[in-house]
Specification:
single chain, HTH_HxlR
């Protein structure tokens, strides 16, 4: 599977709108989890594998390659780390995570009752 690229067809957009390319990338298994974890600081492959629990080494390698080629993470002496773009992305999506936990999930549970 190729890396989602703005301007190229991606899931949800034949023209490859940048937001759709980003959402395609972030929607891949463990991509968001890796970004979320790396915001806490650099991490080795082994620590990422432990964090992601059920991820296979092949899938983790793929995700790391995609995120590196998308300029969201980089390899450092301490392991993998977010780039400045990766940190900016995290800071944009973190409030969405809070909203999902505190508003959407709560409302979802209340509606089921």
């Amino acid at each position: 599977m190729k890396i989602p690229t703005p301007g190229q067809p991606v899931r949800g957009s034949k023209t490859g709108q940048p937001i759709m390319a980003l959402l395609d990338l972030l929607g891949r298994n463990w991509a968001m989890g890796i970004i979320w974890h790396l915001y806490q600081g650099p991490s080795t492959f082994r620590k990422l594998q432990d964090y992601c629990e059920s991820i296979s080494p092949t899938t983790l390698n793929k995700r790391l390659k995609e995120l590196k080629e998308s300029h969201l993470i980089e390899r450092t002496l301490d392991g993998y780390a977010l780039t400045q773009h990766g940190k900016e992305l995290y800071e944009l999506i973190e409030p969405l995570g809070g909203w999902a936990r505190h508003t959407w999930a709560k409302n979802f549970v209340e509606k089921k009752d």
